[in-house]
Amino acid sequence: MLRDINRFLLFTIVGFLIYVAASAYLVWHRYESLSQRTNEALDELAISHVSNILFFILVGAVGVAAQFFGERGDVLRERLRKMFASRTVSYPVIEYFEEVVRSTCVFAEVASHKITVMEYNPTLHAYRGGFHNVYQLRNAFGDVPYDAELSVEIAPDMVRDDVFPLAYISELCITTPDGKRTRHLKGGREIGRSGFKHPIRITLPPNGVATFEMAWWSWIEVGGESGFSQKRFSEHFVVLLENRSMVTPMIHVAGEERYRTLPYGQVEHVADLRNHPPRVRVGFNWGPPLEYAHLGTGQTARDARAEGLLDFERHIHEPNELKF
């Protein structure tokens, strides 16, 4: 905790302790004289020292408490002043950059996104996918705590007026290293075309860690896109896809020539990235199930999947965009 005190205050405390020690010695040495009033000059000096000690204890306690327990403190602000090294930078500018640094100082050591294909509805021409996202968060500062309200936003993968709910969120929680689990959502919540938005508060001590977890399911339209983006840096960014349905989904990842097929029970790595920057979206397109896909020639895709050429109608809509 001493690192939270600036050097001037630390030297002041040391000098004050020396002063207290010298005054205590003087009072103890003059105790007999004080009780008998044999040397009024030295007695007055000792009494003055005692009154000064009481005054400095009161003032010093307030200063120390402000340094230790101040909600925001000035550690980060002073660092920014030294970093800019400019006398022309005003206080509001420093305060602005302080807020920017505070809002981005928490990063994800691991950001894991897993989609499990649960079923396919041929009437809706859509999959139902279960989403499970886990973020292992860490406060990058070793001596500055983090306390902020964040916004979790989810948009459904399919947008239609004749289907409700389009998605359903069931879990939104934070787990600390001691096993304490804080749920930010009481019960589930149905999601329509307007999407889902919910504030959560995250508090981390210096160099502190916590696990943020969320789970929901959403209808995913054939020809549509699923994607993930974050508002913070990730050291390890992973997107997994698993098939637990009775059909064989097909997906297309940007930059690849062929569509991937996903047999029952298979887990596919869609993305496995290191040092992933914020607000960079990772997504992929959904093809029809292998059992329902047809080529323009009338052949089934099963017969010609080696060519990797699929021709199916694409439905354009706003894709899923997870923002955290």
Structure described in brief:
This protein is an alpha+beta fold and 324 residues long. It contains 6 helices and 15 strands.
Keywords:
324 residues; alpha+beta; 2 domains; eight-stranded mixed sheet; five-stranded mixed sheet
Looking at the structure, the CATH topology of the largest domain is Immunoglobulin-like
Percent strand: 35-45%
How many β-strands, per DSSP?
Answer: 15
Rg measurement, Å: 31 Å
- Class of the largest domain, according to the CATH hierarchy? Mainly Beta
The number of distinct structural domains comes to 2
Helix content: 25-40%
The topology string of helices and strands comes to HHHHHEEEEEEEEEEEEEEHE
> Helix/strand-derived class?
alpha+beta
Secondary-structure arrangement, i.e. CATH architecture of the largest domain: Sandwich
- Report how far apart the termini are: 31 Å
* Shape annotation: elongated
Query: Main beta sheet, described?
Result: 8 strands, mixed
* Nearest-integer average pLDDT: 78
Q: What is the helix tally?
A: 6
| Low-confidence segments | 69-73, 295-322
Describe this structure in words.
This protein has helices spanning 7-29, 31-36, 40-69, 75-84, 91-104, 301-304; strands at residues 106-121, 126-139, 146-154, 167-175, 181-183, 189-191, 196-204, 209-221, 225-228, 234-243, 250-253, 260-261, 267-276, 282-287, 320-322. With 324 residues, it is α+β, with helices and mostly antiparallel strands. It has two domains: 2-70; 106-322, Sandwich (Immunoglobulin-like), CATH 2.60.40. Strands 1, 2, 4, 5, 6, 8, 10 and 13 form an eight-stranded mixed β-sheet that branches. Strands 12-11-14-9-15 form a five-stranded mixed β-sheet, with no helix packed on it. It has a two-stranded antiparallel ribbon with strand order 3-7. A hairpin with a 6-residue loop joins β11 and β12. Residues 69-73 and 295-322 have low confidence and may be disordered.
